[in-house]
Amino acid sequence: MANYRGGTVSVIAGASNTVTATVPVGGHPIGVAVNETTNTVYVTNDVGGRVSVIDGASNTVTATVTAGNTPYGVAVNETRNTAYVANYSGGTVSVIAPLQVTVPGAPTGVSATARSGQVSVAFTPPASDGGSVITGYTVTATDTTTPGNGGQTVSGTGSPIVVTGLTSGDSYTFTVTATNTVGAGAASITSSAVSQVKLVVTPTDSSLAITGSPYALPMGLAGLLLISGLAVLGSARLRSQSRTLHVG
């Protein structure tokens, strides 16, 4: 059922007459048609002149097709796997042929920026989504210093994606792939190499931290060593003064 003001389609189970899913589509959805053979749903959107194509198995929009001016009614020819859309203001009918959905193209402009304990990987989405909405991206790390330390993967819905668990001091490059309902596309061009920044451990008293070192001393131990050092220095000065007084 199309929800005109809500911009969604409600999926109703016939056995229980309950809403089992709500699918976001375009602006002001009106007409709905189902191809039972392919389990595909076509929804006309009054705003924007588009038709949303829904995968009935996953209840997700897999494609958005541009139709005519104010698409209204829609019908399906299951024999030819074709949808026909009546455009109310344009006085035309748009014919939607079966979509040839493929994997997405490769993301571009991949760059990596090292931070404390992690690397942020930025990228530009691919020019082609393969005819299906991109559902996520995956970043893969390659350790060019010690190959056995590479292979980390992190997924996300957009740029940038932060990668952790890298070896301190090693040099890394990164690639990104995009995924839609068909699968993962080709990997991007490899990013420039970046060295993973060493972790900096800072004690409670920041003045005692050893910058850039993981061996900063705990506050209690640092205080004891400082007091001990002062005591040794004071003792040495007293011995020196004692020797000076007895000369001659």
Describe this structure in words.
This protein is mainly beta and 248 residues long. It is 11% helix and 42% strand. The protein has one helix spanning 219-245, and strands spanning 2-3, 8-13, 18-24, 27-35, 40-47, 50-55, 60-66, 71-77, 82-87, 92-96, 108-115, 118-124, 136-143, 153-156, 161-163, 171-179, 194-195. The strands form five sheets. The chain has a four-stranded antiparallel beta sheet with strand order 4-5-6-7, with no helix packed on it. A four-stranded antiparallel beta sheet has the order 14-13-16-17, with no helix packed on it. A three-stranded antiparallel beta sheet has the order 1-2-3, with no helix packed on it. The chain is elongated, with a radius of gyration of 32 Å.
